[in-house]
Amino acid sequence: ISINKKVPQNDKKVLWFVLDEYDPSYVRNPKNPIKLHNISNLIDKSFNHLSSYSPSDYTLQSMPSILTKTFSKGHSFKDYQLYLHKDNNLKIKFEINETFLGKLTNEDFNYEIISEVLPYCSMLKIKTSCKDSHNKPFFYFDAIKQIYLPAGYFSKIFEYFKKREKFNYEIIDKLQIKDDDLFVSKKLSIKTNDLKNLINNDNNLIFLHLFIPHTKTEVTKHTTKAFNNMMPTNDTEEYFLNLKYTDFIIQKILEMINKNKKQDILLILSSDHWRRIDSPNKPKPSLLVVKIKKDNSKIELSEKNSNIFIGDIILEYLRGNINKHNDITSLFNNNEFDINDVYIWKKN
Fold first, then answer.
1. How distant, in Å, are the alpha carbons of 10, 12, 24 from that of 109?
2. C-alpha to C-alpha distance for 267 and 294, rounded to whole angstroms
């Protein structure tokens, strides 16, 4: 499908960052060995949902459910097409017209999808307005490496000779990362300075699904390097390392927004699910922080609800029906949620 660009109704901008497995219980936790100052400062000037649950603990189930505003109980593939399963055996096809993105197109709002996690371009069969690492072509020198030296061996050799520092929470907490080492997506070569162009383009929505702060991904190689090759020795150390790196990214996102002349900017930070290792069989709240540039009021919502309604926030903001943080509260109050609708993927 080729998404035809239209003249947008307005120049309102939404930046939606999905931070993979970002668990909000780690924010402002006094037991943390590191401090997450930037997201804490952001929360003081934003709408923060304290009990917003993802529809699933599994990314492939959760994100399509959020985009289609569908509570589902599993999924399947048929002819390279993803289907979400409802309770009544109804199957929802994961395609543009079933997502809120289709509504954006119908109302003359433009969008762009950027992902280093799920292959949205192929899953939604989009040829334009979409970029993910799974469709990224190899460049000339990449091909040489692929042909003459298997990628796995190359990575192991590189890791073997790399100087390593003993992991130290105190040093990590105080260390300042150089701007040259800050990437919104290292995999897609998107630096923090590139955010300026994303904010200034004619798309009303920029959707970015990033691996940070998820552990056991390619991101950790870069975050380790950014923190002077300080190597984590377990999953918890790796998670905190990635959380701290993510906090620097959040700082740069806010700087770029504040420096930009545009005033009608909505920032959404959310997660696809909580940290599974902390609660493998029971749902926990996921991250959902929303910041309207022109509003610095602090609004917190504690009543249980779901980030499956993020699409509604975006649509209502672009339509001009959400202008302050308190308006978002009204949206959640008008939507029902049952925690039993959260689907826990059963591992065999």
1. 8, 9, 31
2. 11
Phi and psi for 210 in degrees, rounded to 5? -115, 155
Token output for 236: 């918890």
Q: CA nearest 82: which of 284, 74, 29?
A: 74
The reported pTM is 0.91
Pair 297, 325: CB distance under 8 Å? yes
**Ranges in the chain, pLDDT < 70:** 1-7, 134-164, 347-348
The model's pLDDT over 130-144, given as tens digits with 9 standing for 90+, comes to 998 765 544 434 444
